[in-house]
Amino acid sequence: MEFILGSSNAHKAQELDALLKNGGLSITPAPSKLEVVEDGTTFQENAFKKAEAYFKEFGRPSLADDSGLVLPAKTEILGVQSARYAPHLEDYKEKNNFLLSEIKDLKGGSRKAYFACYLCFYLSPDEVYYFEGRVHGRIGDTPAGSDGFGYDPIFYPDGCEGKSLAELPEWKMENSHRAKACAAASKFFAGHLSK
Fold it and tell me: Catalytic residues, which ones?
């Protein structure tokens, strides 16, 4: 079964295609990018908005994801706004340092955080499926590592011996929030398509 990705990002399409192959799914980038207003209050709402918009525009089953970093001790920042956090800063190196300064007073368990990913598979207006993946950990005191992107250098997953996500590229491919959501989707679609 082939889906177009609700994004024109070819790299993301390749990553999702690799993660979803076991489910008998093929993911290709959309022919062009749509400007979808992501004003939902949850990752699920935003993933749906994107998937529905791409389905309506291109008339083909679509896949969209919405993900971000959630810091339960400060729910007013990050979350569904993760990609739009600190818009006055140009890159994630600056955003990460700004975030660390903004939460410098949080100690211990208050720095617990998780990455969440919601996938929305939009086959038709009557057939829409969602899958969620999470990785739990904490926001560290300093950035570390050069692999990965976004908030990876300041996120330290549970059970990874004090290494940031940006220091764990192989681990991330198998255990990230996106990998977990894709594993759940692959398992479902492998059964769904074999019926």
Answer: 66
Has this prediction a pTM greater than 0.85?
yes
If you count DSSP H runs as helices and E runs as strands, how many of each does the chain have, helices first?
Answer: 5, 6
Could you tell me the two tokens for 166? Answer: 């940006």
Pick the CATH number of 2-193 from 3.60.10.10, 3.40.50.11690, 3.90.950.10, 1.20.1440.170: 3.90.950.10
Q: Report CA-CA distances (Å) from 141 to 16, 55, 102, 121, 153.
A: 31, 42, 11, 37, 10
β-strand 26-29 against 2-5: which pairing, if any? parallel
Per-residue pLDDT of the chain (195 residues; tens, 9 = 90+): 899 999 867 778 888 998 898 888 999 999 899 999 999 999 999 999 999 999 999 999 999 999 999 999 999 999 999 988 999 998 999 999 999 999 999 999 999 999 999 999 999 999 999 999 999 999 999 999 988 789 999 999 999 989 999 999 999 989 999 999 999 999 999 887 665
